[in-house]
Amino acid sequence: MRANYRAKSAWTEHLPFAFWVIQALRPRSLVELGSHLGTSYFGFCQAVSRFGTDTACYAVDTWQGDEHAGFYGNEVFDTVTAYNTANFSGFSTLIRSTFDEALSYFTDGSVDLLHIDGCHSYDAVRADFESWLPKLSDRGLVLLHDTNVRERDFGVFRLLEEIRKDYPVFEFRHGHGLGVVGVGSDLPDEIRDLLAADKIADRSRDIRKIFSRLGEDCQTRTALDLKTAEAARLEGVITKERERIKVLEDRLTAQQDANAALKAAQVERNAERDADNKAARMVLEENHGKIKSSLMREHGTAQSALKAEHERALAALKVQHEADVARLKQETERLIGENRSMGEKADEMALLIKRHEAEIATRDADEQSRQDETGRLQTELATLTRRLLELQTTHDNHAEEASRSGSDLAARNAAVTSNSRQTESDLKQRIEITIQNAAELIRVFAPDHPSRTSVLLSPGVRALIKKVEAEGIVDTDWYLQRNPDVKEADMAPARHYVLYGAAEKRMPRDMSKPFRK
Known about the structure:
Elements: H1 15-25, E1 29-33, H2 39-51, E2 56-61, E3 65-66, E4 70-71, H3 75-87, E5 92-96, H4 99-102, E6 111-116, H5 122-132, E7 136-145, H6 156-163, E8 169-172, E9 178-182, H7 189-196, H8 201-405, H9 410-445, H10 459-471, H11 476-482, H12 484-489, H13 493-501
Helix pairs in contact: 1-2, 8-9, 8-10, 9-13, 10-13
């Protein structure tokens, strides 16, 4: 039987076996996993139609391709659908889905013939075989394509070797290889004989040779049919091109005739135009002579008028030039006088600059003197503070000793206390004078400096504030109590005293009480 559906495919060489297995098995249902162009599937369908086996056929594929078959668009599915609808719609169904998704469409034990030709990696084909195995009936037969391909991660041959341990197998080695696996327990005798022949060298060799030759012949005929169809298609294209060329040639002939007529008419028009041009040229030459004579006369008149105008303008420019020269001379003399005056002012400015620099040097020297005085006052303040503390300590010690010794030391303690108080009073007065002097120096240093109202203080003032805080000169609680404005301003007492209090004659503490650091 000759295949009606023609597509370039390695499966073409197995079409004779497809016809034979349909006739021998007469399956009630056939499922093909991976139909692609439809060569194998439509071969099965042609055999079902030819032998009247009443087989329900199903082709399962996404018709999008895979890593082995390559990926493609909808044009393949459209072609397969059109052929199936036109020839086998009575018993053939195309299921566009993955193999796993299609499992739910078939009950267990319902498939007699299963052809697996999807992704050919070992893991993929093994998963397909194991997941579909329960769907096979007791007459179940499995076909595995590409069992003789050992490249590009193909692993069907590995699965076939594993299956041999559990099921009878016959393998065709032509056409990329086709494995026939007897899964069912109630296979027809013809199928059993084929499977048994795999273990008989002579018989298996003869069977392979027969189907190989039939497959080769089928492949040759299919290739010839494809070439014949392609030749017919090309002949049709050539015929259409010839017809189109004939139409173009007719158009070209008509166009050439039209061009010849146009050319003759153009020659006639050119002759008429040449005659008209000759007459017009004669008229133009005559008019040109007249116009030239008229222009020459007008040019002479214009030249005379232009010369007179030029002479008048030149005389006016000469007068203007002399006036400008006189004006520029006066302006130059004025600028010379101003320049001489500017030189005298520059000398005066240089003298003022020298005086200003001398004043700056004097002010810098005064500034340094004030800073030295501030340092001296800070040192004196520290010395007086330490002396005051020493006297306070002596006073306390004497008082304690007097308390222990009794009345016989009272007189001497009173004398020491009187001397201590006098010395303490003197020191307090010196401290007050020193702090007031320091505050006065601060005002002298920077009476308008932003440090009086901001956190930016000169290094000397900051050092003086820290010294007053460290020595405890200002009694914080007493100062804030006596000076509510300081508390309201939220300013540190020592800072306020140095910046403002000393100059305003405010006391830093209760001078009637002993001074303690």
